[in-house]
Each structure stands twice: as structure tokens, then as C-alpha cells.
Amino acid sequence: ADFVKVSQSASEGLKDINDARCVAVDGDADRVVYFFQKDGKFNLLDGDKIATLIAGYIGDLVKQSGLESQIKLGLVQTAYANGSSTDYIVNKLGVPVACAP
User: Fold this and answer.
1) 29-41 as b/e, with b when 16 or more CB fall inside 10 Å?
2) Beta strands 32-38 and 75-78: pairing type?
3) How high does pLDDT run on average in the chain?
4) Helix (H) or strand (E) holding 77
5) For residue range 50-68, what is the model confidence (pLDDT) as tens digits?
6) Are strands 97-100 and 75-78 parallel, antiparallel or unpaired?
7) Facing residues of 43 across strands?
8) For residue 18, what is the DSSP state?
9) Which residue in 55, 92, 87 sits closest to 74, CA to CA?
10) Which pTM value belongs to this model?
11) What pLDDT is attached to residue 35?
12) Distance in angstroms (rounded) separating the CA atoms of residues 60 and 9
């Protein structure tokens, strides 16, 4: 995961990732990144982006179901989370965020 994130490229063993969905994990598999290549452009979804997408998606499902008064959505991030993602989740998505040390 670190190699993919830092180099912004697929691991050496992956030859053609165009239109393929790929995942990389770190050494003890407690971090994950998803990546793909579209029209020659490398795209990376790190933990902050994944958490933001999931929070938005689940938030939309709760709203569409009409269960907002019964289901309260929240998100837990580590102290290493990107501050911009936290701000977006709280202020744009309206999802409260707690920080785990």
C-alpha cells in the first residue's frame, strides 16, 4: 500500500491495470488502498477517500429510507487522517467524526 501511494503507480508485477480495479495492503494488512488506471491516468483511493465515499453513500441510503431519526451515522478516524477529509465529512456530508488515538 505504501509503495502504491508514494509512487502513484501499480506494483511491478501488475502489467496492465487499465480498466481493472486493484487493491494493495500494507505488511500487516491493516491499511488498504484501491487503485485503477483509466485512459492512462492512475487513480488512487486511499483510506480517507474510501471513508468519505462510504460515509456519503450510507448517509444517502439513510436519508432515502426515511430513517434519519432512528439511525445516526458517525465516522471514526485516526489522528493520521487528512484534515481536509474530516472537514468535508463533517461540514459537507453532515456526518460527525470522532478521533481514535
Assistant:
1) eeeebbbbbeeee
2) unpaired
3) 90
4) strand 75-78
5) 999 999 999 999 999 999 9
6) parallel
7) 36
8) B
9) 55
10) 0.80
11) 93
12) 32
